[in-house]
Design brief:
heterotrimer, A: about 575 residues, two-stranded antiparallel sheet, 18 helices, about 65% helix, globular, C: about 90 residues, mainly alpha, 2 domains, 3 helices, flat
Chain lengths: ~575, ~200, ~90
């Protein structure tokens, strides 16, 4: 339509790339922020791992790291990875890009609010970045920021670094609250004609559940963060025992949000996998509705498990059993989803392009992560392994699977749609195998080191007699982790090279069914040339009534099918 | 039969549930605010229960001032919903009048609160003077920020109405009203929690 | 934007709200045990909140989805309150 092309031409550079209200551009802005912070977070991990393997030596390319600096590394690595990499990429980028396309809408329900959300995240990023450079340095009380350590500047020696940390988090929460409003309202109200809720792609269901979990859990932490800031700057004593406060209050407020938060990160990752597996098995998802019901059940349960992070905190011991119970129960819906994924693969016509490799990698890694979660969830076991590297290994398995494996799967899969070009398969496969092997080389030994008693957040394991025998394992983990970081270079190369010189992508290079593949690659402003009408669910692969092994959601029902099958069944 | 009409950018008035999209958006926002205030209020209630009641500190709050402020906010809820009713009927003048009254009552609430805070701080009851006061200033402060936000939004609506810009967009009055009533509901609970919950001797 | 629903009596609701406000303050002057007083005061607060929610926020007339968006957060923060109680209230 010529007038639309004219409208696009006339939009200035700033309106198109900086102050855009288009969900696709906003998604790319979120992706850019997430990838930037991923590099920073990875660098911090390198510094940490070197210090652990070769304590009190000079880190190549950096210098000497003392224990206070190590505390800052640990804190910022966690904060950055959870809040500035995982959420921007999995929700901000994939959610924003895919939700309007998958529901057949032109854009999100509130495009200007969407723009405000990514700008708020940008502001939050700047605040966090500044905190590195002010006197005293950045926050160093752990990503969990427990008081009393975090409540009085004199305890950490950090004053404005921690205050800015709190501020940056508050802004990040505000950003995703705004985003969440769009993520929920758009699928609820802006679905294309014929697209009932039970014909939505599972990714949309996962993003919606994640948004609900975030919106309904972050409030108490915002309140708690305000109280922490007041303790730090206004002399109140919400969390300081000497003033009548209680440090446990913070822990409850933090983890009440903190636990749903990990599912906020996990669910979009699972959603990505659930889209990719059927495409490369040429087979429908097994158990579409049970997966949805399990997701909802897991979402509800996620509000009832949080104190499993607090088993040794000194909280009321009577809370240990109920929270162990709910934690064990929540593994059931996730197990169902994993089984459904395996059943989807079963007897499919499986092919292994890079997105599929990463999807299968996600499944394998998540399985280990989930199983080790059960050890942590049982209070008697957790009393031993809490605050050891066993927990660190567990959450890296779950988080890494959701963020890195699923994130890469999604990037390789939707890159053609987002940027109109294909990525290199060879580099992609190299990236996958290196990442998968090296990731396990880093984190499997960590379970053993943790079970052997190595505590979290210590800067120098050699200071402890009983840890010295484990030091060779620490060294091997460090070497593997450096190689793992280097193994991301094929991806970086692939990503940027393909952006400019990749093979031009067609509309539907993977021959998939969901609505985004009916739009051009990349879609223009407004997404679809005509309003899509939806006739069926999203996973009709290898349907017997059509010659191709795929059947898009918006292809009209063929009249001849009714005659030949003799039934008025919708196809 | 597939319809084929070209999508004009920016004119997407779909509502698959039949509920106006803006209303769903505002309610999601309110849902997150419910948990925010719920968490803060819960922390206060539990801390108070665990510490003997803080009655001596709470006794210093002025019930008359609190009551007047509650009355002001309740009435502003009435004027807000009357603004919406006028908007629905197409009564532009009535809508403007009620919106203006809502703004003024909101400002009155804030002014009375500011005066109250000033007199308490002057008497030495700062946020550092004890746990009750820490919570008092945090809770009423967060609430007052929300009132301020509502006053700003309502003022913008009033000015828009004055300039005739609200024609065809009167549903925005309803959406702003939802937020304003929520702020009122929070105060409905804050008032007894802070001003009326202390035990007098002999009870 | 035309609506077919009947409007609640907004002024009537307001009169009830003011009456309940006065009654709440009045309870504090009564010679009843603290527990009874608090029950009455907060009971009235709940009634006031429900009046505002149903009538001014029009929840009475809204779709089930909107109701859910109002109720579910309440349930969730009560879970938080329940768990905070043993740790914070009982120390």
């Amino acid at each position: 339509m010529s007038s639309r092309a004219e409208v696009e031409e006339r939009v200035s550079f700033f309106r198109r790339y900086v102050f855009s209200v288009d969900h696709k551009m906003i998604a790319k802005q979120y992706l850019a922020i997430g990838l930037f912070w991923a590099v920073v977070g990875g660098l911090l991990a390198y510094l940490m791992r070197w210090q652990l393997a070769y304590p009190d030596t000079e880190v190549p390319g950096w210098g000497f790291i003392g224990p206070e600096f190590y505390n800052m590394l640990v804190t910022m690595h966690g904060t950055i990875m959870v809040f500035f990499v995982a959420m921007p990429i999995l929700l901000g980028a994939f959610g924003n890009f895919l939700i309007p396309l998958m529901v057949g809408a032109q854009d999100m329900a509130f495009p200007r609010l969407n723009m405000l959300s990514v700008w708020t995240l940008a502001l939050s990023s700047i605040v966090l970045l500044i905190s590195f450079f002010i006197p005293g340095g950045a926050a160093s009380a752990g990503w969990t920021g427990y008081p009393p350590l975090s409540a009085k500047p004199i305890y950490t020696g950090i004053n404005w670094g921690l205050n800015l940390w709190i501020l940056a988090l508050a802004l990040e929460f505000a950003s995703f609250l705004m985003g969440g409003i769009n993520f929920l309202t758009t699928p609820i109200n802006l679905r294309a004609p014929g697209l009932s809720m039970f014909r939505l792609p599972l990714l949309v269901w996962m993003q919606m559940t994640a948004a609900i979990l975030f919106m309904l859990s972050v409030g108490p932490l915002i309140a708690g963060a305000v109280m922490l800031l007041l303790d730090r700057v206004a002399g109140t004593s919400f969390y300081l025992p000497q003033g009548g406060g209680d440090p446990l209050l913070w822990q409850h407020l933090f983890w009440f949000f903190g636990h749903p938060e990990v599912y906020v990160i996990l669910l979009p990752g699972l959603g990505i996998i659930l889209e990719i597996l059927p495409v490369f098995s040429r087979k429908s998802i097994f158990g579409y509705r049970p997966i949805i019901y399990s997701t909802i059940a897991a979402g509800m349960l996620s509000f009832t498990v949080w104190a499993h992070h607090q088993f040794i905190s000194g909280m009321d011991p009577r809370l240990a059993m109920p929270f162990s119970l709910t934690t064990i129960i929540i593994s059931v819906p996730f197990a169902l989803i994993v089984f459904a994924m395996i059943a989807t693969l079963w007897r499919g016509s499986i092919s292994f392009p890079t997105p599929m490799l990463f999807a299968l990698g996600t499944l394998a890694v998540f399985l280990i992560g989930g199983l080790t979660g059960i050890f942590n969830g049982s209070a008697p076991v957790d009393i031993y392994i809490h605050d050891t590297y066993f927990v660190v290994a567990h959450f890296h398995y779950t988080l890494f699977s959701a963020l890195f494996f699923a994130g890469f799967a999604g990037l390789y899969f939707w890159f053609p749609k987002m940027f109109g070009r294909m990525m290199s398969e060879a580099l992609g496969k190299l990236h996958f195998w290196l990442t998968f092997l090296l990731f396990n080389a880093v984190f499997i030994p960590m379970f053993f080191v943790g079970a052997g008693g190595m505590m979290r957040r210590i800067a120098n394991p050699m200071q402890y007699e009983f840890l010295r025998p484990l030091q060779p394992i620490n060294v091997s983990i460090t070497i593997a982790s450096i190689l793992l970081l280097l193994a991301q270079l094929p991806f970086v190369l692939n990503f940027f090279w393909s952006l400019f010189a990749g093979q031009v992508a067609e509309r539907n290079p993977w021959q998939a069914n969901t609505l985004e593949w009916s739009a051009p690659s990349p879609p223009p402003h407004g997404n679809f040339e005509t309003v899509p009408i939806v006739y069926r669910g999203p996973y009709e692969y290898s349907h017997p009534s059509v010659p191709e092994d795929w059947l898009p959601q918006d292809r009209p029902t063929m009249p001849t099918l009714r005659q030949s099958s003799g039934q008025a069944a919708a196809v | 039969m597939a319809e084929t009409h070209v999508m004009a950018i920016g004119v997407d008035t779909r509502a698959a549930t039949g509920i106006p999209t803006g209303k769903i958006g505002v309610w999601w926002f309110l849902a997150s605010e419910i948990v925010l205030f719920g968490g803060l209020i819960g922390s206060f209630v539990m801390s108070r229960l665990g510490s003997g009641g803080w009655s001596e500190m709470a006794a210093h709050l002025s019930v008359p001032i609190g009551t007047i402020n509650t009355f002001v906010l309740l009435t502003s809820s009435l004027t807000m919903v009357l603004a919406f009713a006028a908007a629905e009927k197409g009564d532009q003048k009535g809508m403007r009048t009620w919106l203006l009254l809502t703004v003024l009552l909101g400002l009155a609430f804030l002014i009375i609160k500011g005066f109250e805070w000033g007199s308490k701080i002057g008497a030495g009851f700062t946020p550092m003077a004890g746990s009750f006061w820490s919570f008092y200033y945090t809770m009423t402060g967060l609430h007052a920020l929300h009132v301020l936000g509502g006053v700003v939004v309502n003022s913008i609506l009033f000015l828009s109405a004055l300039m005739g810009l609200l024609r065809g967009r009167e549903h925005r009055v309803e959406l702003a009203g939802l937020y304003w009533h929520f702020v009122d509901v929070v105060w409905i609970f804050l008032f007894p929690l802070l001003y009326l919950s202390w035990s007098r001797g002999g009870r | 934007m035309a609506r077919e629903r009947v409007h609640p009596n907004y002024v009537g609701v307001w009169l009830w709200l003011v009456a309940l406000l006065i009654a709440s303050v009045g309870v504090t002057t009564l010679p009843v045990p603290t527990g009874v007083a608090l029950f009455l005061i907060f009971g009235m607060a709940v009634v006031k909140a429900v009046l505002v929610a149903l009538n001014y926020m029009h929840l009475k007339f809204e779709h089930l989805l909107i109701y859910a968006m109002a109720i579910v957060p309440l349930v969730i923060f009560f879970v938080l309150w329940l768990v905070l109680y043993p740790d914070i209230a009982l120390h």
